[in-house]
Design goal:
496 residues; Leucine Aminopeptidase, subunit E, domain 1; Aminopeptidase; 2 domains; nine-stranded mixed sheet; 18 strands; binds ligand BES; binds zinc ion
Length: 496
């Protein structure tokens, strides 16, 4: 979709020519392009355009006018006056994509602005913003409405007189943004079309395409291994559970990172049934699993070399069928700990506990990151703007905070003192799966911590950000694809 071009604005005769402009302290913004500057000056004088972030000016040039480019449409998008950043360009990219799609153009030429900032940040930000902003999910619409014509924008050409370093930046950005869109696709699929077996099929395909190893633990293997968490949660469902494992090996002496993603393809709550209002959103309870698989996809495509990776996605539905877990039942997790299941709706931690304990024992990773739509409480605490981060390791946290910031997916660390674990004491088993209502995000993490031990570990609670994520030009309604780009950035920038 994206490419660099040598065709400049003077020779371009296509559908849409796009300029970016900063908001100057005083006076009219400039795009440094002859007659176009004249138009911007006039519109600025009318008070209609100042170059603010999100503001735009779309016009239809008179081609006879000397110095005026011959494109059919010209769009000038405001960047605002903040310090240039990847996020500034991402937002501009999102604005460009949505306006281009509104005009139903098939291709556009974007002129890179002459701004003092790194070429890679600018090109990556714009490219990500355009791909993420052009995302639509139309699969189940039989009538193609124009606004939903996601297939419309086919080609985006970027032009700069000097474009050193832009090529690789553009490739990497397009690839990671596409992986995030893939995670959105998985999440958008309804739960009758995206069941646990779809995770294993996807994992196998990824492995075949990119030279990774994929292992799927089926019901019989899970039973043999003693994974009472995922098996217990699965008891009320007609769909068998799947535990998908992907391995991406770069070199034996590189550190190994274990990724674990919650792949709950529908969470009804089980016998502790959820209220029906909004329950349809619980098809998104697999967004952690989607993020982890799609991050693996991006890393493998980009052939990143810094870390060995293992990804595990425990996948099941949580339904109240006749064999379902009942409140008060005791299950035995992988590794032997007994858990009293006081609330069957706190199922994510049960399937993650098996996956974490198994992954750590089997692959002996140097660090672990899990991603899960784990608690409604994180939405009470942080709203829809930041992912909750809980961890036993300051260095891992700092790296994730930086990766999230660079990716426009900010995180916020919550405490995880040993006091919180007290809430999980059970009268009859080693621990129970819920504490009191207070500090729900922290007690959920405290439960996971019991299965991690001393190894550096971070838990991302994406319940507030996996969908309904903060409003931005490149974030659609519905699933956001959160954490794919953050994980990719974390891995890409890994250095001891
Ligand atoms: N999948 C939910 C968490 C969730 C809630 C995600 C809302 C996104 C939006 C999870 O399995 C769950 O039900 N958690 C319970 C835990 C409680 C029973 C301790 C919750 O948060 O209410
Ligand atoms: Zn639940
Ligand atoms: Zn859940």
């Amino acid at each position: 979709m994206l490419q660099l071009t040598k065709i400049g604005p003077r020779d371009y005769r296509g559908d849409l020519l796009v300029y970016l402009t900063r908001q100057p302290g005083k006076g009219s913004p400039r795009v440094a392009s002859g007659a176009v500057d004249g138009v911007v000056r006039r519109v600025h004088a009318l008070g209609d355009f100042s170059g603010k972030e999100g503001e735009h000016l779309l016009f239809y040039p008179e081609q006879e006018k000397p110095g005026m480019p011959s494109a059919k449409r010209i769009l000038v998008v405001g960047l605002g006056k903040d310090e240039p950043s990847r996020e500034m360009f991402r937002k501009a990219g999102g604005t460009i994509a949505s306006l281009a799609m509104k005009s139903e153009v098939r291709e556009l030429l974007l002129v890179l602005p002459d701004i003092a900032c790194g070429m890679a940040d600018m090109v990556e930000g714009l490219s990500e913003g355009i791909v993420l902003g052009a995302y639509r999910f139309n699969k189940y619409k039989t009538k193609k409405v124009p606004d939903a014509a996601g297939e419309m924008l086919q080609q985006v050409a970027l032009y700069a007189e000097e474009n050193k370093g832009a090529g690789p930046a553009l490739k990497l950005a397009e690839l990671v943004a596409r992986s995030a869109c893939q995670a959105r696709d998985m999440a958008n699929e309804p739960a009758n079309y995206w069941t646990p077996v779809h995770f294993s099929e996807y994992g196998r395909q990824l492995a075949a395409a990119h030279g990774m190893r994929c292992t799927v633990l089926d019901h019989a293997r899970l039973k043999k291994l003693g994974m009472g968490g995922i098996l217990g949660v699965n008891q009320g469902s007609a769909q068998p559970p799947e535990m998908v494992i992907l391995e991406y090996a770069v070199k034996p002496n590189a550190p190994t990172l274990l990724l674990v993603g919650k792949g709950l393809t529908f969470d009804s709550g089980g016998i502790s049934l959820k209220p029906s209002l909004g329950m349809e959103e619980m098809k998104y309870d697999m967004c952690g699993g989607a993020a982890v698989l799609c991050a693996m996809q991006a890393v493998a495509q980009a052939k990143l070399k810094g870390l060995n990776l293992v990804a595990i996605v425990p996948a099941t539905e949580n339904l109240p069928g006749p064999a379902a877990l009942k409140p008060g039942d005791v299950i035995t997790q992988y590794g032997g700990k007994n858990v009293e299941v006081v609330n069957t709706d706190a199922e994510g931690r049960l399937i993650l506990a098996d996956a974490l304990a198994y992954g750590i024992k089997k692959y002996k990773p140097d660090m672990v990151i899990d991603v899960a739509t784990l608690t409604g409480a994180v939405i009470i605490g942080l709203g829809h703007h930041r992912t909750g981060l809980l961890s036993n390791d300051d260095d891992l946290c700092d790296r994730l905070l930086v990766a999230g910031e660079r990716s426009g997916e900010p995180l916020w660390r919550l405490p995880l003192d040993p006091e919180y674990t007290k809430q999980l004491k059970s009268e009859i088993a080693d621990l129970k799966n819920v504490g009191k209502k207070d500090g729900g995000t922290i007690t959920a993490a405290a439960f996971l911590k019991e299965f991690v031990g001393e190894i550096p570990w971070a838990h991302l609670d994406i319940a507030g950000t996996a969908w309904d994520f903060t409003e931005k030009s490149y974030i659609p309604k519905g699933p956001s694809g959160i954490a794919v780009r953050t994980l990719f950035d974390f891995i890409r920038n890994w250095k001891k």
